[in-house]
Amino acid sequence: MKKSDANHLLVATGISKSFGRVQALAPLSLTISRGERVALAGPSGSGKTTLLYLLAGIIQPDAGELLLAGQDLARQRPGKEKAGLVGLIHQQYDLVPHLPVLHNVLAGRLGQWSLFRSMISLVWPQDRQVAEEALAQMGIADKIHERTSHLSGGEQQRVAIARLMVQGSRVILADEPVSSLDPVRADDILEILTALAGGSGKTLIASIHSPSLMRKHFTRVIGLREGRLEFDVPAAEVTDRALERLYDLDQSEAAVWGGGN
After folding, report:
1. Domains by residue range for the chain, with CATH
2. Statement: residue 163 has pLDDT above 50
3. Which of 65, 161, 235, 241 is most buried, by the most CB atoms less than 10 A from its CB?
4. Pairwise CA distance, residues 133 & 232, whole Å
């Protein structure tokens, strides 16, 4: 890592991405430091998920450079090293519904295990204590043997977070982690995520629509629209007007949206 970037865990320089003729993300440069809690705001199709997938190394930029902990993500292969750098909670959680909760949580260890150990774990779960501790922190230790499909949406979200906990990544990415939850449960989940990040010095980057949740749980807000950066400001300084312009809301829509969670 360059000396000037010593305090930056993530450095993106001119990264862009297109799918066919559609430019999902225009050239973008940003730096994110260790321990930051960054909210990505913007309407559907603004480039939030594309940016998260680039940061996770799931897709590669068409141009530019993306460094995570001084390492070029484009050259990182799936495995222990990459799993220890970054983990992503997908919007639909990516849990296997017919498997017990225990196995879904331990999926977070797959990047650290050999193929043989991964296969053995399907019959004799490996690192069981690690999964038990993560589920206990999530408040659902009693669900460890339940079929995952039997859980509520909020409980499944907690399983997804527990899976990320056992993965042990330095950067936590979350794609609209509370979009399907009611306001109270949404607040609870973000309390858990921010506590997880803050308690261990991890960096949290999540796409969020709610102005109140952005301001309460995050230190910085990055606004995207049509794949372009609109603003990048401390969460305490993001204004209702800036968000209204970002989402292109009229006066009546803004009054309803801005007052809710």
Report:
1. 1-69+172-194+202-260 (3.40.50.300), 78-87+96-169 (3.40.50.300)
2. yes
3. 161
4. 36
